[in-house]
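[Help] Beginner question about ligand-bound structures

Sorry if this is basic. My supervisor gave me a protein sequence and a SMILES string for S-adenosylmethionine and asked me to "get the holo structure". I don't really know what that means in practice or what format the answer should be in. Inputs are pasted below exactly as I got them.
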Amino acid sequence: MHDIVNGPIVSLRADAGACLLIGEGPQADALHADLISQGVICRRETNVEEVDVAGCGLVLAVDSDPQRNRQTLTRARDQGIALRYGPDCPELSTVDLPAVQPLGPARVAIVHDDELVRDDLQLRVRAGLPWRYGSLLDWYGQVRAESDDPVFLRQALSGPTAENLLAGRAIDPEAALADIRRQHADASGEVYLIGAGPGDPDLLTQRAVRLLRTADVVLYDRLVAPAILSLLPAQCQRINVGKQKDRHPVPQDEINVLLRDLAQQGRRVARLKGGDPFIFGRGGEELDRLLEWGIPFQVVPGITAASGCAAYAGIPLTHRDYAQSCIFVTGHRRQGGMDVDFPALVRPGQTVVCYMGLHTLGPLCAGMREHGMDPDMPAALVEQGTTERQRVVVGTISDLPERVAALDVHAPTLLIVGEVVRLRDRLAWFEGRADGDGFPGKDPTPS
Ligand SMILES: C[S@@+](CC[C@H](N)C(=O)[O-])C[C@H]1O[C@@H](n2cnc3c(N)ncnc32)[C@H](O)[C@@H]1O
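Answer (accepted):
No worries, everyone starts somewhere. Holo just means with the ligand present. The predicted complex, written as structure tokens, is below.
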């Protein structure tokens, strides 16, 4: 890393072409030393009035006088020089000098005109990467000379040798390559059943993020927020198998077969489901089939909508003074009727969380009243919980359906009923923005 006093951190490739550095002052001095050491500078000029920029690939105008920088850049532009840079004249610059974080043979370039932001981003990039990642990339280069098969190469990046390198241990490259060849010969795929949480990507577990990064292909549901998909590696194949209410773009049987076939091709298959895969997620059913077919799998829990929405709405699901138990139910209709055990919902000292209950909000609230729940029992509907579009509609089991009907509410939504809803008055801490990121557009099939 070439740290430049009061300026960008520059790392230009030695073959960047003739580079002309114009100006004087601490930034120009530091760049001068840096570019000379890299062998990319052609000359330095301090008298801007007489500078000839012809034939230069890159003009760096870093004078301490912004007016002189402007003159230089204007002259470079008039002479058709494609690349020029002036920290004080962004509108005249056509090239950014990024802060560069070297990682062995790779370099992470960070572009922003504010030095503090560059530093902050650089620290975050550094903190998010294993310290010896550069050594891993050096080793990867050797493996790439052997094969361009992605499965083979992936083993180099994430297998035992990779772990040894990241831990700073010495490796025997020949033995390690032989290991990879052997692993590749009997490579079998695997399915990762991963809970994507309720929407906010920061709520993914570390294990989920790690496995998603290594996945060759991902099958995802409708309730996986777009922000989460943006974390997938670019080369990872994405298959949307999202179901909508009463409409199954990819039938469950086909999803099961797809999981099997992809894993049997030796691929790492991430099966990504909203919330937690074992809570109203049919995760157990999919694993049953994989078990029958002898496909290995792992399960990564996710934060279920109840926990995520309650936390972001400021509604503790249990509280010593208000609720000593909590029940999760679904308000989904089955063959036209609702399959709800109302007597179990109206027990005192209990919070009721209802998934898939937007469409049946009226009958659900009416059913609880008819089975003896206090008509003034507080209730909240959390729309697109934990996302930037979160909205919480609060009322009682008597008036909530009417309040919700008056608003343009979009799925997914979660109903929370119980005395604990009152705590939101004091504990609410997160509100979304109408224009923020959430689940896509208007959902024609509210649940
Ligand atoms: C098929 S269930 C899947 C539940 C998921 N496995 C979980 O653990 O959260 C879908 C229902 O979860 C609830 N849900 C999921 N994400 C939500 C969110 N971000 N905000 C509100 N409700 C959500 C809604 O009730 C939605 O209809």
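A couple of things worth pointing out: The chain has four domains: 19-113, 133-185, 190-303, 306-427. The mean pLDDT is 85. Feel free to follow up in the thread.
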